Amino acid sequence: MKKWKTLSFIALIFVTSQFTSCTPEQLGKILDAATSTAEQPLTTNEIVSGLKGALIQGAVNGSNKVSAVDGYFKNPSLKILFPPEAQKIEQTLRDIGAGSLVDDLIEKVNHSAEDAAKEAAPIFKSAITNMTISDAMNILMGEKTAATNYLKTTTSTPLYNAFEPVVIKHLNKRGALDTWTKVVTRYNQIPFVQKLNPSLQDHVTNKAIDGLFTMIAKEETLIREDPIARTTAILKKVFAKQDNQ
Hints:
Layout: H1 8-18, H2 24-38, H3 44-66, H4 87-95, H5 99-117, H6 120-128, H7 133-140, H8 146-173, H9 176-188, H10 200-225, H11 233-243
Helix pairs in contact: 1-2, 3-6, 3-7, 3-10, 3-11, 4-5, 4-9, 5-8, 5-9, 5-10, 6-8, 8-10
C-alpha cells in the first residue's frame, strides 16, 4: 500500500463522490480543510502510532470500567449469566427452591470477571503491537468501531489463551468454581434428570472478553467523535485529520 502523503487527495475524492449532495458552502469548507491539512501531511508512522494509541487507550479505559465494583454484575448488557447449555440447570434449581445457590454463583462469576479485567490491559497492549500500515489505514478510514473490530478479529484466539488462566485464577479466589460444583452436584442429584456438567471457565472467559470488547468499542467511538477524549498529541493529530475529511 502506498504511503498516505496528504489528505488533499482523499478530500478531493470525497468532494467528487458527494458533489451532488453538497451545497457550495459545504464544498468550500471541504476544500479549505484539504488545503489547510495538505501542508502538514500525516506520516505512516504517525497513523500507525495514533491508531495503536487509540486501541491502547480504549483497552485501558474499557478494562478500568468493567473491572470497577459491579462493572459486570450491575451492567445488564455485560452481566454474565449461566451458559446456554446450563440454563436448564438454573431453571430447575429455581423451581425446587434452590435459587439462592444460583444467585450466589452468578454474583461470584461476575465479580471474578471484574477482578480478571484488572489484568486485561497488558494482554491487549501486547496484542496491539503487530498492527501494520495497511491495518492502520483501513482502521482510520473505517467505521466507528473499526479498531475494535480489528483487535477482535486478529487477537481473539491468543487473547483467550492469555486471559483464560487469569479468569480461572479469580474464579478460584472468589470460590465460584466450588459453588459451580455445588450447583451441578445439586442438579444431578435430582431424580430422572439428564446429568450435566458444562464448562464454567470457558463460558466466563468468553463472556468476560465480550464485555471488554463492548467497552473498548464505546471508548473508540468516543475518541473518534469527541476531541476531548483524545488525551495524547498523536491522537489529537491523527483524528483531527479524520475530522476534516
